[in-house]
């Protein structure tokens, strides 16, 4: 593909709506109204930038606060009830919000009855901003729509805002003050979302005339207030262990931890009580050092909102506890910042903070990287840590501090949220580290520094040395068609970006022209060729890469890696990332289940049936509900849930009907289904999976697999298309020139060139390919 033909793809105009019209009027909504009753509202930033949207929360209420964005895809119920968002206008960057509704709210206000679906007793955000909102919802726990919940709670919300443009602005300018303005009841109706234009807005008498139609409120900075006093518990509450308590070494009582609530999330309580710890939650200014205080074994400082320097009483009492040094201390998020301030370090406000569910953090001791959930706008300045304190975690994106620990005392804290909700639970083991540290100190009657799992960085680097590669081949996904998922295109593009940041020359094999990974300027060289063993082998022989990735192209790339596993060494190409042996193990259900049993992990049980009746009998034996899934079907076609045997039979019919009873051999090959050819026909093998809840407390799913050979169905043969013309050899003078950013190999000339010697006059030299 010549570089001159690489055209930047056209992008929808709505995704490039400007942040404000030339005359100062708000940018129009990017979506249509759900109903004519939806009123419009405006999000205005402190610099005058304004976005008009449609209200789906509390009506007629204007609010001001700090405008921040959060990048998580799901978990809006947990995020909205996170006390760390107190006073903030939250932008949810994921395009579609509200499709799974909101669970039922607790019927009682009993503080000891902690609901599983929320992180506090109320919504804490000042307002919610989304791009596209779905009033229709579908989830087995859903009790209402998101909009209804927001209205009940009196929280304004706007949809139809260009959150992409808004987020880009915040990333450039940083978090800013903003306000959500509701339209006055007596104001004239706003123009329809699609009719707002620059031309019509230009007739406004002044840049601020539009504000006359909205309820005005002044800008307000929540960080100037003591938000902790607003969100902290007003009274002491004790939460008993769930299940068997973890006993103190004396054997007389369970382990007891005092948690200072400076904005505590419910899941932090769950993480302690589900580990057998008795948790005493106290207000932010509670004197837990008083002589009358009941004996406790550890001190925990929770997450919370606002500027940590505003919580002076908590910092001072924490400093006294560290000077007393008679028990372990653990802090999370705001608790991390308070611990650092009490130790003598300093904190500062970040440009736009870290708020999301997939933020990587590196363990300074082991060198391991963990994916974390975060929500904070302030940070600890590592350079100000006093003697005896070291950095424990570092943000892999912006190098900001994510954790500290005391070298000779059991004090440590992390900036991220190991309790997650929402987000990954990769670092929940830190609660186990803290509890084990409490036991160690109580058992030895001395202060034992924390011990982190995972070994040391030197040990890990020696066990898994870093690959020294200069040129890497990446196998992209197989041919994509409309309706297929493109997740491997996105993962492949991210892999290319990461490799280029390391200065590694990247070569991509991907037959899909209109994809992200094949965009101009991404990979250094792109081969628009089928991802097959034959082509990949020739490319390796020609390009001589140091390494190859087979994990960014889906099943097609994995299959190629498995078929070439015995040839990579002779080709001088090292497999990077997941080893081929691991891929083979994960692709084979029986091998994978055996591997899981070796490490004590439960795995989805599978069984095989050869008839419809056998499948129904097996499902009845295991129990309902079940999930029926047709194997080898594109996008889960024919899959479904079944609560009873009648539903199972219906789901079986749907799964089996997902495949034609007879297809030509070519069609079967395109679908990558095993087939038996005879007399120009083939029988397609289908698989159906049943996943059921076995009723155990941990709710493990087991699966039943159903394989069936369908009988052929007579079908009129389609005329075979004429064979394609043989490829034309492209003269060197007409071949596209390689640019400094990337090059494209023309498919027509590739077979003739791939086996040619480097010194052939028809083949560009190695130095030219690398340019």
UniProtKB/TrEMBL annotation:
> What does the record give as the reaction this protein catalyses?
hydrogencarbonate + L-glutamine + 2 ATP + H2O = carbamoyl phosphate + L-glutamate + 2 ADP + phosphate + 2 H(+); hydrogencarbonate + NH4(+) + 2 ATP = carbamoyl phosphate + 2 ADP + phosphate + 2 H(+)
Q: Where is the composition biased (Pro residues)?
A: 720-734
Segments forming a coiled coil: none
Q: Which organism is it from?
A: Phanerochaete sordida
Q: Which GO terms describe its cellular component?
A: carbamoyl-phosphate synthase complex
PROSITE patterns from the entry?
A: ATP_GRASP, CPSASE_1, GATASE_TYPE_1
**Positions of the UniProt region annotated as Disordered:** 1-33, 712-746
Q: Does the keyword Membrane apply?
A: no
Q: Which GO terms describe its molecular function?
A: ATP binding; carbamoyl-phosphate synthase (ammonia) activity; carbamoyl-phosphate synthase (glutamine-hydrolyzing) activity; metal ion binding
The protein's name in its UniProt record: Carbamoyl-phosphate synthase
InterPro entries xrefs: ATP-grasp (IPR011761), CarbamoylP_synth_ssu (IPR006274), CarbamoylP_synth_ssu_N (IPR002474), CarbP_synth_ssu_N_sf (IPR036480), Class_I_gatase-like (IPR029062), CPAse_ATP-bd (IPR005479), CPSase_dom (IPR005483), CPSase_GATase1 (IPR035686)
Q: Which residues form the ATP-grasp domain?
A: 593-638
BP GO annotations: 'de novo' pyrimidine nucleobase biosynthetic process; glutamine metabolic process; L-arginine biosynthetic process
Q: Which UniProt keywords apply?
A: ATP-binding, Ligase, Nucleotide-binding
């Amino acid at each position: 593909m010549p570089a001159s033909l690489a055209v930047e793809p056209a992008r929808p105009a709505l995704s490039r709506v400007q942040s404000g019209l030339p005359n100062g009027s708000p940018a129009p909504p990017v979506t249509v109204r759900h109903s004519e009753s939806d009123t419009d509202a405006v999000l205005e930033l402190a610099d005058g930038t304004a976005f008009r949207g449609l209200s789906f929360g509390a009506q007629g209420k204007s609010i001001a606060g700090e405008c921040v964005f959060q990048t998580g895809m799901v978990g809006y119920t947990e995020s909205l009830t996170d006390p760390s968002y107190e006073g903030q206008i939250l932008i949810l960057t994921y395009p579609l919000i509200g499709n799974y509704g909101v669970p039922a709210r607790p019927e009682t206000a009993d503080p000891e009855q902690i609901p599983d679906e929320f992180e506090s007793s109320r919504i804490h955000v000042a307002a919610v901003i989304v791009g596209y909102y779905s009033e229709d919802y579908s989830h087995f726990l859903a009790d209402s729509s998101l909009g209804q919940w927001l209205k009940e709670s009196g929280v304004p919300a706007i949809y139809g805002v260009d959150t992409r443009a808004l987020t880009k602005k915040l990333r450039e300018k940083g978090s800013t003050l903003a306000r959500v303005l509701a339209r006055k009841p007596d104001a004239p109706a706003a123009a329809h979302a699609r009719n707002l234009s620059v031309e019509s807005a230009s007739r406004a008498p002044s840049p601020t005339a539009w504000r006359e139609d909205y309820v005005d409120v002044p800008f307000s900075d929540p960080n100037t207030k003591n938000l902790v006093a607003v969100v902290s518990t007003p009274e002491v509450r004790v939460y008993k262990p769930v299940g068997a308590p973890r006993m103190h070494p004396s054997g007389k009582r369970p382990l007891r931890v005092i948690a200072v609530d400076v904005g505590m999330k419910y899941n932090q309580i769950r993480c302690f009580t589900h580990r057998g710890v008795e948790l005493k939650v106290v207000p932010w200014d509670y004197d837990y050092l008083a002589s009358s205080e009941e004996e406790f074994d550890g001190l925990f400082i929770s997450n919370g909102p606002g500027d940590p320097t505003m919580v002076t009483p908590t910092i001072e009492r924490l400093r006294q506890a560290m000077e007393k040094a008679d028990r372990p201390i653990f802090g999370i998020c705001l608790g991390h910042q308070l611990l650092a301030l009490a130790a003598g370090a300093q904190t500062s406000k970040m440009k736009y903070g870290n708020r999301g569910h997939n933020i990587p953090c590196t363990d300074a001791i082991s060198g391991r990287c963990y994916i974390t959930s975060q929500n904070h706008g302030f940070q600890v300045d590592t350079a100000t840590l006093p003697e005896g304190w070291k950095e424990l975690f570092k943000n892999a994106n912006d190098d900001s501090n994510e954790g500290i620990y005391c070298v000779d005392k059991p004090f440590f804290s992390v900036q991220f949220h190991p309790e997650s909700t929402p987000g990954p639970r990769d670092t929940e083991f830190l609660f186990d580290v803290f509890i084990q540290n409490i036991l160690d100190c109580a058992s030895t009657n001395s202060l034992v520094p924390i011990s982190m799992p995972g070994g040391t960085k030197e040990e890990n680097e020696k066990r898994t040395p870093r690959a020294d590669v200069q040129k890497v081949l990446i196998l992209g996904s197989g041919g994509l068609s409309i309706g297929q998922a493109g997740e491997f295109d996105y993962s492949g593009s991210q892999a290319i970006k990461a490799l280029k940041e390391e200065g590694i020359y990247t070569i991509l094999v991907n037959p899909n022209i209109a994809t992200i990974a094949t965009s101009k300027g991404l990979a250094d060289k792109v081969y628009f060729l089928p991802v097959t063993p034959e082509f990949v082998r020739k490319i390796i022989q020609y390009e001589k890469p140091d390494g190859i990735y087979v994990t960014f192209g889906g099943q097609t790339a994995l299959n190629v890696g498995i078929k070439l596993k015995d040839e990579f060494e002779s080709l001088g190409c090292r497999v990077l990332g997941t080893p081929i042996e691991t891929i083979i193990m994960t692709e084979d259900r029986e091998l994978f289940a055996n591997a899981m049993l070796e490490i004590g992990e439960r795995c989805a049980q599978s069984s095989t049936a050869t008839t419809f009746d056998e499948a129904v009998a097996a499902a009845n034996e295991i129990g309902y509900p079940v999930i029926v899934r047709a194997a080898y079907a594109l996008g889960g076609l024919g899959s479904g849930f079944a609560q009873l045997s009648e539903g199972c039979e219906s789901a079986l019919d749907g799964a089996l009907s997902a495949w034609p009873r007879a297809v030509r051999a070519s069609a079967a090959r395109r679908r990558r289904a095993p087939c038996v050819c005879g007399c120009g026909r083939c029988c397609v093998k289908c698989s159906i999976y049943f996943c059921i809840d076995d009723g155990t407390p941990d709710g493990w799913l087991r699966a039943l697999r159903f394989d069936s050979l369908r009988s052929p169905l007579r079908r009129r043969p389609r005329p075979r298309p004429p064979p394609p013309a043989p490829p034309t050899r492209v003269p060197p003078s007409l071949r596209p020139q390689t640019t400094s950013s990337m090059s494209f190999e023309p498919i027509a000339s590739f077979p003739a060139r791939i086996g040619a010697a480097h010194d052939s006059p028809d083949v560009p030299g190695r130095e030219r390919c690398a340019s």
